[in-house]
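Much of our argument rests on the idea that a fold can be written as discrete symbols. Part of our work consisted of pairing the sequence of a single chain with a tokenised description of its backbone. No coordinates are needed to read the tokens, only the vocabulary itself. The record that follows shows the chain in one-letter code together with its fold in token form.
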Amino acid sequence: MRLPLIKHIVEFVDTHDEDWVVESVELLENLAEAPGIKEEEMEVIGELLSNLYGALEVSKDIKGGTEKKEALNGFMKRVMGSIN
């Protein structure tokens, strides 16, 4: 997961609509099931999905009243905590 990408996607959600990101997630998940997908391609799809899901989570926090910077930092702390 990369915070700059998540931040960029959150800004997209703010400007457009969350449904665009949800539909992108659905497309990538479907694409991951396609026959002939190579391991490297699966890694890229997985990375994109994790950033999209992260952005949706941050957007949800922001809609719940958390400031953007605090929502981003809180999300990354949760991610880092789960890795350690």
User: Anything to note?
Assistant: Helices lie at 3-15, 18-32, 39-63, 68-83.
